[in-house]
Amino acid sequence: MSNNEKMLEGETLLAKVRIFADRPLDQIARLCGYVGPSGRLLKQQFYCALVLAKGFRMPDQKGEQHKKRGRQADFTTRVHGNGNLLVGQTYTHRAGIEPGQEFFIEIQENTGSIFLLPCNGKDLRV
User: Fold this and answer.
1) Between vectors from CA 21 to CA 20 and to CA 23, what angle results, nearest 5°?
2) pLDDT in tens, 2-52
């Protein structure tokens, strides 16, 4: 029997959650079968199953359950307390930026947008 076959859903899931309502949520998820092959707790799948069992419709993920790719970049960042703005490895890799590459920083005054312009050995300053 595969892992997906023993993960409880619908009324069966809700009934078991009600029975063990006094226990920690992680333990309830394990009791309902939301454990991966490595023994890792599948919290997101458990929470989604609970939401569906309660009758809420989830937005269509277009095959997301078949192609899990780990943590995905959300393309947001925050300015740190020291004023630095960090652009992480995921973003630089996706933009094709290599270590050591130099950029001019252009700021659009009216929108506050920041642009990185590759130097390519040229002085682009006006």
Assistant:
1) 70
2) 444 589 999 999 999 999 999 999 999 999 999 988 889 999 999 999 999
